[in-house]
Fold this protein.
Amino acid sequence: MNGAAWLTFAAFPSVIENSYEINEHLVNTMSYAYFVTFLLLNFPSTTIYDRYGLKTGIIIGTLFNLIGAGLKTLINSSFYFVIAGQICLGIAQPFLDNAPVVLSAQWFPRHPVLFLP
């Protein structure tokens, strides 16, 4: 869901520009929120996974995903809600994208056991 919300408006920026009287450049650059927040929060998210565990990291990512999607539904009130929602979704991305790596690191041992016949 996080990936789908990332490019919600990328398919039709001119429609959004005309409907909400904003600059088309703003609509196109909203996807950069994901890149910036991933760069800023990638290492802190892995630290949270290391200190507090997989469940806590996934809960944080899911909560930010929920808040961001909820804010984007308020588009008719103000386009600023969409920007805030996009930032929240961007915060959720490193937590959700790093979860499979943490899960596989916990599931498989660092030193595999050799089974000899």
In short: Residues 74 and 91 are 19 Å apart (CA to CA). The helical segments are 2-6, 13-20, 24-29, 32-52, 54-72, 79-107. Residues 2-8+19-101 form one domain.
